[in-house]
Amino acid sequence: xxxxxxxLSLMVGCxxxxxxxxxxxxxxxxxxxxxxxxxPSDSRYQLVQSPLLARFMLRVDRFSxxxxxxxxxxxxxxxxxxxxxxxxxxxxKFHVYTDNRVHFQVFLSGILAKNTFLMDVxxxxxxxxxxxxxxxxxxxxxx
Length: 143
Prior knowledge:
By secondary structure, the chain is of the alpha+beta class.
């Protein structure tokens, strides 16, 4: 048997064995990935976590659009929130709402952490998170 044919046979055998393994063990082998807290549609706050980076967690005020990132002081082993600020030019398109209802949502990409967006759901105005070399982050206008 040629080496190519042997390699293909081995690959098909592995796929047949490992591909069928979850069916043998039942459905409980499927991993569930949480990237957002389950909150009622009218909740003010929501936690959103990157499916790529467990340490990239945001607390979103869905009424005001304020977003904080979770940080940790490793020396003291203490957690705290750091506000993600708006770039000055982005503030021009930021609408301040006075009513108590949901106006903002955050989207975190499952492919690239840099594809993190804040959107005003009433106007469609969108901002993307930007990071500099000092690891500081802020929101920058998309439209």
